[in-house]
Amino acid sequence: MEKVLIYDTTLRDGSQGENISFSSDEMLSIAKRLDQIGVHYIEGGWPGSNARDARFFELAAREGFVNARITAFGSTRKPFTEAADDRNLQALIDSRAPAVAIVGKSWTLHVEQIMENTREENLAMIRDSITLMKDHGREVIYDAEHFFDGYREDAAYALETVTAAARSGADAVILCDTNGGTLPFDIETVFDQVRRSLAAQDLPVRLGIHAHNDCGLAVANSIAAVRTGATIVQGTINGYGERCGNADLITIIPILNLKMGRASIPDDRLAQLKILSRFVSETANLVPLNSRPFVGRSAFAHKGGLHVNAIMKAPRAYEHIDPARVGNKRRVLMSDLGGKSNVVYKAKELGVELGCNGLDCQRIATEIKTLEDQGYQFDVADGSMKILLQKFTEQFKPLFELQSFRVTVEKNQSQPCTAQATIKIAVDGNDEITAAEGDGPVSALDNALRKALAKFYPGLEAMRLVDFKVRVIDGREGTAARVRVFIESRDHNDIWSTIGVSEDIIEASWHALADSFQYKLAKQQEQTEG
Ligand SMILES: CC(=O)SCCNC(=O)CCNC(=O)[C@H](O)C(C)(C)COP(=O)(O)OP(=O)(O)OC[C@H]1O[C@@H](n2cnc3c(N)ncnc32)[C@H](O)[C@@H]1OP(=O)(O)O
Ligand SMILES: CC(=O)C(=O)O
């Protein structure tokens, strides 16, 4: 079966999404990653729109792209003008991109009411613009904007527009669900009718799909189109794009390759999908979606005890593919929804030996449920979970002990708050007292503890706290409200999270902080002991 060509429009339609803006250098670094993974087209922007997009094409022209064709996007010429005089079309030519995408109108609403144009002139605009690009030796991809809405309202005219495009030499015609309101079975029906109509006119043009996600169906619609003959799929990394976004290529590519047996990017690059998804979200400065299919952190995370019990016997019992195929990995989460299987799996993963003191995993699972009932949440605190498992199994070796601490916060009229902490700890029976300042009480406590421990343990400079979250847990009848504090810490090669729960926010923070330092110091010791 024919290969499905992947057409990425992250840099163009993706950047039409709210809160997304890439610099031209960032656009280039994304383009290089897309090329490496093997996408076939990279739509680099609209050179006639702004200086940044035009600069991207200058940069791209100097780069060698191995797999992808750089594509410049623009609209058909203005009504009642010459294509050769059109500024936008000239910008496409000047971009030196080997392929161009020309967007034109298919829906009479847009032709007549929005553009106040005539139907015939719209057809002429499509014809002239494509002809000009072909005369300049470009591959032309014709984007039929609002094709499905147009077809619903006036099928004959919508068909006339894509026929005009094909007759003028367009190499591909892309049917666009611009407003994202079409359902998969309508995509299939319309796609089939268009394909048959063009074939009957002996216009064997390549057909593609461009779907928006306003009904949450962009991926489903793209797949439906492939089933009915589309061999180009346009979309964006992570589904970024105008309004609710575009079809997510990170989901579509593995569906094509792994589920439908359709070649798109090479199979051996699928394992780079997770990194690509992360890279683009980092560059866009957007938090990666945990639940993103295939590559999200939670995509293969198992919390329910029944599920964990089953995947330990046969992963496919609750996993639709092997996570490694797309560069992801299986995770087991600890919580009050887990059973003994979660404990066994997690202990192995965290390197804690079970069965040392006869406290069986069933009992440990019950203890965890009790703690969760008191406000702990271990599915996001692996660092504290490891310490807890060591405590349950009497393998815990405290590397320092708190004797006392005191934290004060000072606020002067015009100055920002400052905080000071003094702390007394003991290491192997030796007391150490230190004091330190910080931007806030937790930062002061962190600095004081770090200073005290430095005397006994080298190597703590590499460790830093990177995230701090506080949640108020509902108070029950007769109990005061508690707070739950999460701390995320990292060093050069690891990241871990810890938790503390108390009625007092400073005490909860202390527990999370102490677990974080204990985790780091124990890790250092394990590495030294080999
Ligand atoms: C479905 C899509 O995503 S298409 C891509 C949408 N992306 C963008 O719009 C981003 C880039 N756009 C831009 O930078 C600007 O809109 C520009 C430079 C293209 C045009 O800017 P302006 O000349 O100031 O016009 P403005 O944006 O207000 O309106 C768009 C004009 O294009 C016309 N137009 C819309 N579609 C087409 C088309 N397919 N062919 C020709 N002209 C078109 C409109 O009728 C309107 O014309 P008017 O100025 O005579 O009213
Ligand atoms: C071309 C395009 O971006 C659309 O129709 O949505």
Automatic annotation (TrEMBL):
EC nos: 2.3.3.21
Top-level class of the enzyme under EC nomenclature: transferase
Cross-referenced PROSITE patterns: AIPM_HOMOCIT_SYNTH_2 (PS00816), PYR_CT (PS50991)
One Gene Ontology MF term: (R)-citramalate synthase activity
Catalytic activity: pyruvate + acetyl-CoA + H2O = (3R)-citramalate + CoA + H(+)
UniProt entry keywords in alphabetical sequence: Acyltransferase, Amino-acid biosynthesis, Branched-chain amino acid biosynthesis, Isoleucine biosynthesis, Transferase
Coiled coil: none
Annotated pathway: Amino-acid biosynthesis; L-isoleucine biosynthesis; 2-oxobutanoate from pyruvate: step 1/3
Residues covered by the Pyruvate carboxyltransferase domain: 4-271
Keyword field contains Plastid: no
BP GO annotations: isoleucine biosynthetic process; L-leucine biosynthetic process
Family as reported in the entry's similarity comment: Belongs to the alpha-IPM synthase/homocitrate synthase family.
Name of the molecule in the record: Citramalate synthase
Protein species of origin: Desulfatitalea alkaliphila
Taxonomic classification: Bacteria, Pseudomonadati, Thermodesulfobacteriota, Desulfobacteria, Desulfobacterales
